[in-house]
Specification:
Blueprint lengths: L12 H7 L18 E3 L11 E2 L14 E10 L12 E10 L2 E6 L9 E4 L4 E4 L1 E6 L15 H15 L2 H17 L2 E8 L4 H14 L2 E6 L7 H11 L5 E8 L5 H14 L3 E5 L10 H7 L7 E5 L5 H9 L3 E4 L1 H6 L7 H6 L4 E3 L11 H16 L8 H16 L16 E4 L12 H7 L6 E6 L2 E5 L2 E2 L4 H21 L1
Parallel strand pairs: 2-6, 3-6, 3-7, 8-9, 9-10, 10-11, 11-12, 12-13, 13-14, 14-15
Antiparallel strand pairs: 1-5, 3-4, 4-5, 7-16, 16-17, 17-18, 18-19
Helix pairs in contact: 3-4, 3-14, 4-5, 11-12
The protein binds zinc ion.
Length: 494
């Protein structure tokens, strides 16, 4: 869900609305030889540890050198066919070894290195964490709002008024709340498209993200074409965060083509992706965003387009031909009556597409629902259960496919030895999930955030035993409630 940008020196929202016509597999780094029993590097100094850590030890995070052995997962979906079987690289009854934030081995009966934390995963599934390619975390402040509005009504009634009242502490409260919700739902990487323009608010935003331990990309809409603030934000706030990365955000439209060009130039100078909302509503055909992005020379693998619903056949072909990346946000698109992305056509042409929760218009961080909806919408459209995407397609899209779309598949997205250790453990022993019939299908069709038992980002445990580690959840909620109450009071006073 895009926010129409209202930067100080950019065209006004009204200008934008007028311009809108209505109202506004990357190469995998294997680095190891896969063997039948033990796939991955041999563990260093192997010893059996006698301590088996039990889930539920909240407040006892896996830290130190972050050596963790996930022991005996009943099914590991590595997403890497070179590591396991089939398109999802499945391995039965396997261990996953993480050392210093890196996956070093996936296989059976791995020996635990000295000092390793051994975590029993028997009866559970392990897989890569979800990659959320598009969100707006601050919009947690308007959860459940404007439910009878479309995109433009939602801006007017919900996002625009609330954005104008944000304070640094409110931003911190909402972003922290939403980021932790994403983490507890199994999201290990997220891309946040942000059109907030003052340095103190941005600082608070980035600090909240960094404090959660999630891997994140801050996609910043620059308020001015000169790139001064955006450079400062990247250098001072994002670059120092080990798991932080940066993109330049824009909203492609003829009315702001010069601004779009400036944003593309800044992105190129920085060597980062340009991240644009594109054709979320049919009325935005009048903006000709694909034409604008073509004219400024941005079509290519350094461009990420969000929603991408109302493209013509020729535009989808151009996107595919230039290896442009896309974020599909089906739950948001349904909520706002935006339309249905032609995901089947994108898949047929081999476009690298990830999934996006899209912040406030989603009202949840439920990636299982997102995957299920990505399948269901295409089936409903085609009245054909055989169309792309199938279950294995959405699982890949939610993990490795998202990483490919972001150009980070050499580091995350699959449980390939050598990649960063972003891992989730799903516990199927639940009323909504059991009994086992086809766990791959059940992850997509039955899974819920509460079935996500453990989450590791860069080898660090952020959730164990179904609970966030070292997080006072009640306090996070209380602070968000207090911040929301202050914003409501400010609105009533204003
Ligand atoms: Zn959006």
């Amino acid at each position: 869900m895009q926010s129409i940008p209202t930067p100080p020196s950019a065209p006004s929202r009204r200008d934008l609305l007028t311009g809108l016509g209505l109202a506004a597999a990357a190469p995998l780094v294997l680095g190891v030889t896969a063997g039948p029993a033990l796939r991955g590097r041999p563990a260093q100094q192997p010893v059996q540890v006698d301590q088996i850590a039990q889930y539920g030890q909240v407040g006892d995070p896996v830290q130190g050198d972050r050596t963790v052995l996930l022991r005996g997962a009943s099914l590991v979906l590595t997403m890497d066919p070179a590591v396991g079987n089939g398109p999802l690289g499945a391995v039965e009854n396997a261990d996953v070894l993480m050392q210093n934030g890196t996956i070093t081995a996936v296989g059976t009966a791995l020996r635990a290195p000295r000092g390793a934390r051994v975590v029993d995963a028997s009866g559970k599934l392990a897989m890569p964490g979800f990659v959320d390619t598009h969100t707006h975390l601050w919009q947690a402040v308007i959860r459940g709002g404007c439910t009878d509005r479309d995109l433009f009504g939602w801006f007017e009634g919900c996002t625009d008024p609330q954005r104008g009242r944000l304070t640094p502490s409110a931003v911190h409260s909402f972003v922290r709340l939403a980021a932790l919700d994403a983490v507890q739902s199994g999201v290990t990487t997220l891309v946040d498209w942000v059109d907030i323009f003052s340095y103190d608010l941005i600082e608070s935003y980035v600090r909240a993200l960094a404090g959660t331990g999630v891997r994140f990309t801050y996609a910043m809409f620059p308020p001015k074409p000169d790139g001064v603030l955006v450079t400062r934000v990247k250098k001072e706030l994002v670059d120092p965060v080990p798991l932080g990365s940066f993109q330049v955000a824009t909203h492609a439209a003829r009315a702001v083509q010069d601004l779009n060009r400036a944003h593309w130039d800044i992105a190129q100078d920085m060597g980062v992706m340009l991240n644009s909302h594109v054709l979320e509503r049919p009325e935005q055909r009048a903006d000709d965003p694909i034409g604008v992005l073509t004219d400024i020379g941005a079509l290519g693998p350094r461009l990420l387009i969000n929603h991408a619903i109302h493209l013509t056949d020729a535009e989808i072909a151009a996107v595919a031909e230039h290896d442009v990346r896309a974020a599909h946000c089906p739950l948001s698109n349904m909520r706002l009556a935006s339309g249905i992305m032609r995901l089947t056509e994108f898949g047929r042409r081999g476009v690298k597409v990830g999934l996006g929760l899209d912040g406030g218009t989603n009202d949840s961080s439920d990636f299982h629902a997102l995957m299920k909806t990505a399948i269901g919408l295409q089936r409903a459209r085609a009245t054909d259960a055989g169309v792309f995407p199938q279950v294995h397609d959405v699982l890949r899209m939610a993990t490795l496919g998202g990483a490919e779309a972001l150009g980070i598949a050499d580091r995350v997205g699959s449980l390939t030895p050598g990649k960063r250790a972003d891992v989730v453990v799903v516990d199927p022993a639940a009323l909504n999930f059991a009994p086992r019939f086809d766990w791959v299908g059940q992850v997509v069709f039955n899974g819920r955030p509460e079935n996500v038992d453990a989450v590791f980002v860069d080898g660090r445990a952020l959730k164990l035993g179904g609970r966030l580690v070292e997080v006072d959840t009640d306090r996070v909620v209380r602070e968000a409630e207090a911040a929301a109450a202050r914003l409501r009071a400010a609105g009533q006073a204003g």
